[in-house]
Amino acid sequence: MKTRITEMFGIEHPIIQGGMHYVGLAELAAAVSNAGGLGIITGLTQRTPENLAKEIARCKTMTDKPFGVNLTFLPSVTPPDYPGFVQAIIDGGVKVVETAGNNPQKYLPALKEAGIKVIHKCTAVRHALKAQSIGCDAVSVDGFECGGHPGEDDIPNFILLPRAADELTIPFVSSGGMADGRSLVAALAMGAEGMNMGTRFIATQEAPVHENVKQAIVDASELDTRLVMRPLRNTERVLTNPAVERLLEKEKELGANIKFEDIAEEVAGVYPKIMQEGTMDVGAWSCGMVAGLIHDVPTVQELMDRIMSEADGLIKQRLAGLC
Ligand SMILES: Cc1cc2nc3c(=O)[nH]c(=O)nc-3n(C[C@H](O)[C@H](O)[C@H](O)COP(=O)(O)O)c2cc1C
């Protein structure tokens, strides 16, 4: 399948693995790239530019295909060393960066000068247009269904994607709720030129996370996610568990007076414990509604092959047969 996204990133299939904190390590990025998609290392999980440089080098020992690095710009009292991360990406010879969380404008000149393509992930058409206007090469349009941070507009992909198609001239991929060949074909029909998946890639053999995380996704239905931190305007879609329900109770009790400190126990620093140690109830972790469509833990290669052959069959047989 050839789209503006496969051409831009030099990949075989129009499928991207979105950056994921404590999941997007070299093992997963390399597996996705080796299977013909675009794997992405999550920059901030590496904590320092030196560690990121090592992770990029490690990924290069596992794949000779293109892969990217995610740079998430978070609201933070002591911001990470973003210029250092950008330099590590440039020095590492990485050719694609996925930005998210905030406007990446400040770092675009350095990235562009190094010949790096930038795909900005955003949850609103107005943000996608801004990304286009500042020179991003592509956008990842993240609908309300998505795992992680869906923004505050709550527009699902059935509306968001055609709206993006109507407004944008740069290519975009659909993100949020994508799991299989049906997702890909639907996304293409709505004007996207590929898809980005998060949650689906966690439930794969190569995802370097504890088995409990994969099992939790397989066990979950589409009814099992919750939106937390909405009162802080930092909404995150997570899988429910006792810590999440406790957090939601606090939100209800404290209302508009809630502060980050009130819920720090449930959200701060919990990722290593969940992703690496498998202590699932320790806090809130991002997960998409798409969990309801995930019933197995295949290898990345099996997953990608299945998606592409399902998409091929849908387009050539089911859809063509309708006309
Ligand atoms: C566990 C987890 C961690 C994530 N961490 C990040 C992150 O650090 N930066 C980022 O830009 N997106 C992050 N995301 C969002 C994904 O890159 C992707 O946009 C999202 O998962 C798409 O929705 P889906 O889960 O329905 O496929 C995360 C998602 C999950 C499930």
TrEMBL record:
What PANTHER family does the record tag this protein with?
2-NITROPROPANE DIOXYGENASE, 2-NITROPROPANE DIOXYGENASE-LIKE PROTEIN
* Keywords annotated in UniProt: Dioxygenase, Flavoprotein, FMN, Oxidoreductase
- Source species: marine gamma proteobacterium HTCC2143
* InterPro entries membership: Aldolase_TIM, NMO
Please give one Gene Ontology molecular function term for this protein: dioxygenase activity
Signal peptide feature range = none
Q: Which domain of life is it from?
A: Bacteria
In its UniProt entry, what is this protein called? 2-nitropropane dioxygenase
Pfam families from the xrefs? NMO (PF03060)
